Structure formats: structure tokens, C-alpha cells
Amino acid sequence: MSTPRISWMAVAASLVLVAMAAPPVVAQEAAAKNPAADQGQQGPLVFQPIQSGWVMAPEVKVTEFSDHYGTMVGAYVGWLTDESFLIGGSAYWLVDGAPDRGLAYGGLLLGWYAPIGRVARFGARGLVGAGSGTTGLTFTSPPWDGRPCCHTWDKPPADTSEPVTWRGAYSTHFLIAEPEASFVVRLSDWMSINASVGYRFVGWANGFEDRFRGPTGSIGIRFGSQ
């Protein structure tokens, strides 16, 4: 009987096939030992877009000034960046005034907001600008020489040598700064409710600063990028 000869080329080919088959087998064993890692690699990637764009909000503002409460209407328009930073302008004017009580102002508006949930944001905004107002005054005049000190008055007294008391209205211009805390609730991708409370500081009002400063509260509907 003759002894079979071993083909070295066949042995080499067999070793190559075994080496090629080993990595898939090892990978399958590793996946079987750690299935969670494999599932984590196959999970979908989710991208959340951050919006920027123009916004516009008509507002109703309640404020105190000249020892009265009044209602103002107005609006702000601005650019909202990354749903967080607002820069724009705003203007407001009194709608329930009187001949001796008026108020209007506007200027640059800056705001910053942070999310406190999926649909709500809380932040701060501030208005810096100028305005004008009218306030009522009561005068007690010594002998009055007929020269008015105010723009309008109820009834100028007759020229007399006796002191008289009369009521007038004084109008002036001033500078303002109005910081506010603001709360925004999103209703849809293009509309939200905006509520704010703050205080109006007034300067350069010819000595009548205390007549035109006071607390404020406003509510509005914001349209645009939310």
C-alpha cells in the first residue's frame, strides 16, 4: 500500500479559509454577549432644529402714573435668534387718558429667554427709549399776572390781587428705561402668548419724574418664529 502524499498547497488554502471565517464568528459571539451595545449603535439620530426669525406682538399694558391707573396699547417687532435672544423696537400709548393725563413712549427692546419645558420659556426684556406725557397739577397763585405756566388748564382765574387755587395740565418729554420679567407659552409653531411685569423708570422730565414712573403689566400675542 502506498502512503498518500499531503499537498502543502491544500493545507495552506485551508488555513486561509479558516482565518477568513474567524472574524465574523468572533463578532457574532461578541454581539451575543453584549446585545445592548449593538442596539445602541443601530438607534436613529434625532436632530432638533433651533428656529430664528422675525416676531411681532401686539400688546395691552396696564400701568400706574400720575396717581392713576391707565391702559396702553402697542406692539413690538424684532428678530428672535435661536429662540432665546430678542432685539427689536416697541411703542405704546395711553388709550383712556384725559386732557390732564396722557402718556406715550417707545424705543429699543432687548430680551433673553430660557426654556422651562417643551412649550414654555421664562426670561427678561428691557425697553430703553424716550416718551412724552401730560400730568394734572393744582396751583395756588398769589396775585396772578395772567401768564400760564402750563399748556392747558381748566379755567384760568381772573386777574386779581387775592391768591387763587386752580388746576392745570403740564406736558413734557422724558427718557425711560423699563425692565420686565417675561413669560412665554407657545400655542403653535407660529403663535404664542407673552405676559410680562415690570417697572418704568423715568428721567429728564423737568422735575416731574415721579409723576410718570410706575409699575407695568402687559399681555400680548406673539406671531412669527417661536
Structure notes:
The chain is an alpha+beta fold and 226 residues long. It has a single domain (53-224), classed as Porin (Beta Barrel), CATH 2.40.160.20. 17% of the residues lie in helices and 54% in strands. It is built from 3 helices and 9 strands. The protein has helices at 8-33, 35-42, 209-212; strands at residues 53-65, 68-81, 85-94, 102-115, 120-141, 152-153, 164-186, 191-203, 214-224. The protein has an 8-stranded antiparallel beta barrel. A hairpin with a 2-residue loop joins strand 1 (53-65) and strand 2 (68-81). The longest helix has 26 residues, at 8-33. The relative contact order is 0.16.
What structural keywords apply?
single chain; 226 residues; alpha+beta; Porin; 3 helices
| String of helices and strands | HHEEEEEEEEHE
Number of helices: 3
Strand order of the largest sheet: 1-2-3-4-5-7-8-9
Strand element count: 9
Q: Count structural domains.
A: 1
Largest sheet: 8 strands, antiparallel, barrel
Structural classification: alpha+beta
> What gross morphology would you assign?
elongated
- Which value, in Å, is the CA radius of gyration? 37 Å
Q: Which segments are poorly predicted (pLDDT under 50) over 5 or more consecutive residues?
A: 1-32, 35-40
How large a portion of the residues is in β-strands, by DSSP E? over 45%
Q: Whole-Å distance between the termini?
A: 92 Å
Indicate the CATH topology.
Porin
